[in-house]
Design a protein that fits this description.
- This is ABC transporter.
- It holds the Pfam family ABC_tran.
- The chain contains 9 helices and 10 strands.
Length: 246
């Protein structure tokens, strides 16, 4: 079954240097339909730069990125048309309501997104009851869920989340995990989630790549990796991979 699933995202030998410093060093990833894939490592490891290259916010020095077998470099509009993302912090107009912010995104979108879809995504992320409240009144966890709603507007096949748990309280974290798992299982949406907060990713991702100083040091299915390194959580797994690499 696993081998029959489509590769939603394929990254091959991706490299990026900034001011003479190697930020991303020969990174390769293969992410299949329905994966909740963790891209895990410390701050400054190259995670956000990699995600920004996927979204063509930064251009790689070399390497290839394919989304659903379409080249991002050669056909960006088509490749990225079914990708939703939150790169760094979600940004909204704080004086507008949740609904108004999503309506503005819908108007600016290349796709036709009606009010029914806006109501639908607000319901999916559990914010329908506060859709008429101004975003300035939202907690950080609610803003993250609104960001996820925004990423869902265009019926994406792939959603990229950069550090989505930063500053989110335990209740907000739990709610976010439940939503992501449900979307992956029921809607077959693929997630690529970067984080340096490994403890908070426990129980969410079932596959991961660990990155350190721009290089992938290990990747694969998390249960198999934990068995290989004789550990029981992501934080211990990361440090075991780092020790193995030395």
């Amino acid at each position: 079954m696993e081998n029959s699933l489509e590769n939603v995202l394929t990254i091959t030998n991706l490299n990026k240097s900034i001011s003479g410093q190697k930020i991303v060093d020969n990174v390769s990833l293969q992410i299949k339909e329905g994966d909740i894939y963790g891209f895990l490592g410390p701050n400054g490891a190259g995670k956000t730069t990699t995600l920004r290259m996927i979204m063509q916010l930064v251009f790689p020095d070399s390497g290839e990125i394919f989304i659903s077998n379409k080249s991002v470099a050669k056909n960006a509009i088509q490749a990225l048309s079914k990708v939703g993302s939150i790169i760094e912090n979600p940004t909204f107009y704080l004086h507008l309501t949740a609904f108004q912010n999503l309506k503005l995104s819908a108007i600016l979108s290349l796709e036709t997104i009606d009010n029914a879809r806006i109501h639908e995504v607000l319901t999916i992320v559990g914010l329908s009851h506060v859709k008429e409240k101004r975003v300035k009144t939202f907690s950080l966890g609610m803003k993250q869920r609104l960001g996820l709603a925004n990423a869902l507007l265009g019926h994406p096949r792939l959603i990229i989340l950069d550090e989505p748990t930063n500053g989110v309280d335990p209740q907000g974290l739990r709610e976010l995990k439940v939503i992501i798992k449900k979307l992956a299982a029921k809607e077959h949406i693929t997630f690529l989630i970067s984080s340096h907060m490994l403890r908070e990713m426990d129980g969410l991702c079932h596959k991961a790549a660990f990155i350190q100083r721009g290089k992938i040091v290990e990747h694969g299915e998390i249960p198999s990796l934990m068995k290989k390194y004789h550990v029981s959580n992501l934080e211990d797994l990361f440090f075991a991979c780092i020790e193995e690499e030395k």
